[in-house]
Design goal:
The chain contains five helices and 70 strands. By secondary structure, it is mainly beta. The strands form 18 sheets. Strands 61, 62, 64, 65 and 66 form a five-stranded antiparallel beta sheet that branches. It has a four-stranded antiparallel beta sheet with strand order 3-58-57-56, with no helix packed on it. The chain is globular, with a radius of gyration of 37 Å.
Amino acid sequence: MRKALIFAFVCMITWPLLAQNQKRPVKMVNMRPIIKKYNDFFSKKTKVERAQKGNGIKPFRRWEWFVTQRLTKDGEYPAGARWNVFQDVLSSRGSVVAQAASAAWTPMGPYNMAGRMLDIAFDPNNANVVWAGSASGGIWRSPDGGTTWTAMDDQLPTLAIGCVVTHNTNSDIIYIGTGEGSFNADAVYGVGVLKSVDGGVTWNLTGLSWDISDNAAVNEMVMDPTNPDVLIAATRNGVYRTSDAGVSWTNTLSFASGHEDAKVVVIDPVNPQNVYVTLGYPWGDPNNGIYKSTDNGVTWTRLTNGLPATATDMGRASLTICESNPSVLYMGLSGSFDYNSAALYGVYKTTDGGNSWVQTANSPNFYNTQGWYDNVIAVDPGNPNVVYSGGVNLFKSTDGGVNWSTITNGIHVDQHAIAIHPTDSNILYAGNDGGMYKTGDGGNSWDDINDGLATLQFYAMGSDANNAAIAFSGTQDNGTNRYTGSFTWDHVLGGDGGEATVDHTNSQIVYGEYQNGYHMKSINGGNSWFAINNGLGDGPWVTPVEMEPVDPSVLYTISDYNLFITHSGGSSWVLLFDATESLSRSIRVAPSDVSTIYVAGSYAMYRTTDGGNSWTNITTGLESASLSSIAVDPTNAQLVYVVSSNWSDGNHVFKSINGGDAWQNITNNFPNIPCNSIVIDPDHSDYIYVGTDLGAYISSDGGASWEEWNSGLPNVVVDELDIQASSRLIRAATHGRGMWESPLAEPSQASLTVTAPNGGESWLVGSVQQITWESSGNSGNVKIDYSTNSGSTWMSIINSTVDNGSYSWTIPDTPSENALVRVCDVDDDPCDQSDAVFTIPFHGILGDVNDDALANSTDALIILSCDVGLDVTQFCPMNCGDANEDGLVNSTDALIILSYDVQMEVSFPVGEEGCPVNVTACAGCNP
């Protein structure tokens, strides 16, 4: 029976205090040198060595794929920029949420598999309460030892959680350190330490927030067991300490080299004056090693006795202290890249609080050659001779670290966290690239406890065009998985998955891939697969694939940074386009003309209109953009959009109406955030969706304006959007929070109906009448027009007025028997007019006592009125009278007005309009 699934959707006003924080200065950090270091290192390895499991190249390629998309053309990353744009989004979210209320993202799972976990911590007041921090999926809480899980806040400014600490005596107070400090390519960086005082429902920044963040991350944190106001944090920027519960922090350990990569900090549970921390810049640094403080983390001394003599040979180190005997500590040490390729250097043990160390073992190699990425160690709190350590796999020693045996026993590889139950040491939790696992017998057997823990990191996805209950997706280190309409997904391919494509005419034919463009095919709906790489070399880490909209046996992909095509469903591939610049990012075939194809690399884009015989470079106008995704209008092959995934402010969305010969920048009000995917609603092509590093955005006017489309969606990186057209659904493959879907936005169903005048009315010249209408769903004001010739021509009454259902109109001096009124939304849709004509009569006969065309101020304007309901005061600038002196009670009355207004035009001769002409002079009408 499926375990209970718990979710916490926290209101978007979670961050009232956070939103008040000022923006941070942005520092441009050049990432090219470190990328070059990795590439130079791996270039020295043979192809066989690079293919060996645990060699570290996969974590690097993931990082390279993720980070290079977000760099400027000069290789720079604007550290701190994501925080600033998050503040911009928060400041406008109130109005945006109202505008985009029709977005209704709901989770699709999977909830039977999970992604990379970085930390596991117990509530010190209740060991059944377990906290787990995800690499990019947020902070999770289990009240029952891992049986059920709750996502505590999906709207944190970053969902990368490096560590969790709960208050010693008050479980409502929790601290989390943000960011992933593993030097992996798809690491999501942090914003410092956050604090909750309500059990994790809401969070706020503490005083440790990065003013200038250079890939900031808080890797580990400890609380003084005797003074909970004291916390010590190991960060990518050194060691920080607070003594006032996070209000202010002091950097107590850092170096001029800038390589103070503090990985682990532990505190003596008996004498908290003793604190230990490891520094482990993976390329080696003179300051690498283990440090001890005897004054509660204020000052530090490097420990050397028995440890490697050359600090630059030391890489990342893990550390653990025995609670029952705090003089016993173990350190798992990897070498630096240059020393031993980040393999195990040795396991070191001290029994005298770090004064002296002994290497207990230098094998087996827990880390292979990726000790920089996954490196953990933990000692039994009650037995200092029982130790667990892991990297790629997990090992156990029962003799104080001398001999080791594997206890992986089927759990996922790449270990990032170990936690031993504080009162039952047979219970052990492991967090790795496959989520969370638990053993109750010291590691002899394990249970997958991922049910409900939705932290899978997706790269790409593809829906079945004929069945909304079927979709496939590629993920980080969790292969390709199949959605079948429930939260429980099927794992169908291993490795790192990539693009997934379903034949739009035959749901049994599916295409998937491993990393670097190794293509696979299934002809039974994903139950079994075979390779289809004839003619192909290596592709990008996540290789784009495009299926022709008409013939599904025609597919396109990238190999060796050029465009290849198959006409046989992958049986063989041939080169279609040998570009002068690298292609790697996106391929699109125009739905309305399969001979028109667009293809892009990061800084180059090309087009063919003859099926690939000739190509045109259409990069001009896009030079500053790191191109990531292309979309082509469903009915117009020349109307094309492209988005950029770097941080070039104001250069994120582009549009061309002539196939890319010229580009219009339509970023407009789009925030400065990397854009990873763009799709067009096939039924309403003005509706465009973009997946970004801060969720999804929508335009309903062809890119003229943008708004957030995130209602219900976590604040997570969206790597790809996909539309399942037959069910009118849009889906988001997120980098850390699984898959989500929402109904597509529908064009406005706004209505507007004129209720008066609506036919048959008689509205007199000069009278004030109420134009009324009924409306619903309109987004703005209305404009009002009238016609005197049954709608052949229209004249404006007002260009814009509030859509409140009523407008006062003074009838103009334009008599008509065929008048109409129309009311329209200011954007012309919707619009409605009177159902039938109404009349605009004069009030009667206009005349002049002296018959001299009202030539002087003594003239008297005489109006005979058949409408005794007329408010005559508006026509009486001086004096009004009544020929019969009976109060104008019947239609034979003649209203006489003495007027000084000689400007009024007299257009009716005496005797017209059907009113009696029996007018006598008015006594007492003196001008």
